[in-house]
Every structure is written in structure tokens, then in C-alpha cells.
Amino acid sequence: MAPRYDIFCRVVDNWGDMGVCWRLAADLAARGRQVRLWVDDASALAWMAPHGASGVEVRPWPDAVPADGVGEAVVETFGCDIPDAFAAALASLQNTGRRAPPWINLEYLSAEGYVQRSHGLPSPVMSGPGRGLVRWYFYPGFTQRTGGLLREADLPRRQAAFDRPSWRARHGIGGAQRAITLFCYEPPALPGWLDRLAQRADVRLLVTPGRASAAVRAWQAQRAGASPPLSIDHLPPRSQPEFDELLWASDVNCVRGEDSLVRALWAGQPLLWHIYPQHDDAHHAKLDAFLDWLDAPPAVRALHHVWNGMRPGPMPDLLDDGLLRAWGACVQAARRRLLAQDDLVTQLFRFVQEKS
To answer: Catalytic site residue 152?
Structure first.
């Protein structure tokens, strides 16, 4: 029987955690593992992964360990804590002289320095049913000293085979139009930015459902009857492969959170990241660390700072031809650096083998 992984996911908000967990589970299965994905709310998979994935079994959050026991690795995501029953099962294995499967905490993505220092460190469990065990920190990241990024083995092949002109033609995007994907929260600069875009005849705004669409519709309602209109498509929900194609087809990708940032990097187009806002502004340092790693030109830094509410002022013109060339070259260089590194699943396999 193929090695089996147990992955645990609690959906907090915005479905980003589910997006990361599904990509991880599907990639593990594509590489010959069996996966049980334990999740407290799997409803988003109806549109995110409508056809499922061979080798991935989605199960509700458990109260007990299945009769066939725990898998060869137990992965809790984003500090969600595995159920007590699983912790107790791991401790029981260890207490009877057998080696418990590695208990791994897959953490949030960041370019901050602590990620390289913390990746792979042990965290002794001091209380509860898992007392005496070790939980291992596994940090995704952008450098060789981290756990890397999710990247399916066939991603470069799929991207190279993608027919971008045909996709754009099917979606009614003219050859001279600039297509912008908008996947964001509610950035303060959004209304003014949309006002500026409306002055251009060559823009097609592709708006993802949810908070981005709601924010744009609010702007449209306030501007009802104003001229000139902005060409806007409010898109239906898309599966993860379809979302990848949307990013590949666009000229600029405004993304948010963790999963879509990684997918925008693989897309290789100019990207604008709306980082998840935190009440203590901790996201400011996280954004700047990413921009440092990206080696972002000053104008791209300015775009990100205004977009994320870190500085006042109108949004710089993100469709300026000179900016787009420099921005695109920057993202392409970052993509090449990442492609030269091992992906997250390759590193996870190696890590599990070392700790087993």
C-alpha cells in the first residue's frame, strides 16, 4: 500500500487555508501517496476542486482515530492542532517502543528572517495527550533554507502548453486590451484606483467572486451612470487549475493571501499583493520582507505600500509601459530563482524520511 499522510485543516476565513491544504494533498497524491484530508468545513472544495483528486480522501474533522491507525506522517496546518485522539495514538506508539510517525506543523508563508531560523526546529509537547512527543516546524519560504513553495511536478509543462491567445479570445479580451485580475480584500486605495482605470479604454478588469467582487460592485453603485464606464467582468468561482489559467492569461495579477501569491509568482506576470491585514500592523514587516526578497523596483514598492494602506496617496499608474517592463522582469527573475530550488513536497518527503 502507498504511504499515507494525514493532513488536518481548520478553515478560519477566506478559504486560503483550504486552498493551500488542497494543493498540498493533491500534489502528495500525484506523487504516489494516499492522503486523508481532515477538515472542519470542506464546502469550498465544491468549486475549488469539483472533481476531487485520485488518492485524496476528504473526511470531516475526527473525534477518533480510524481503525487502520494514523498515517506515515501527520501534518497539522497553520497551527490548527491535531485532534487529541491522534495525539494520543502517536504517544501510544512511542510509549510501546515503536517510532511514532512525524508530527509536522506546516506554518504560514513569509519571507521574514525568522522563517529560515525556525524551519525544521523541534517543539517538544509538554502537556496533553501528546506529552513527550516532538512536533516539527515546517516553514514554506522563498529560499534554500526554508521548506520551499508548492509546485506540482507538471506545472511548467502545463504552463508552457497553455494557449494564452485562445483563452483571451474566448473571454472576449481584445488583443490591445490590458487584462487585470483582481483578487483582493478591501484596500483603501481601491475606489480611487478604479476611477483612474475608468479613464482608460484599454483595460479589462477580471474580478474574482467574494470580497473583491463586493468591493467593486459597491464602487459601481456609487458611480452609477458615470462616464466613461470601466470594462468589468465579475467572474464565477473557479477551480484551482482554472484560477491558474486566469493568472497566466492576465497582464497584471492583483492577488491576496498566501496561495494566490505563490500562483502569481509561478504565472510570472507583474503582481500586486494585498497581504492579509493584521490589527497590530505586523503585516507591514511581512510585506517589506517579501519585497526585499523580490528585489522590487522602487515604483513596485510604492504600489504595494499604497495598495496595502502603508502610505497615503493615489495609486501610481501600474499600467505604465516602463513600469510593466521592469516589474515583469523582476517577477520573472524571482520565478527563475524559485524554479532552481526544490519544491515544498519534495522537501517534505525528505523531511519525513529524516524524522521517521
So the answer is: no
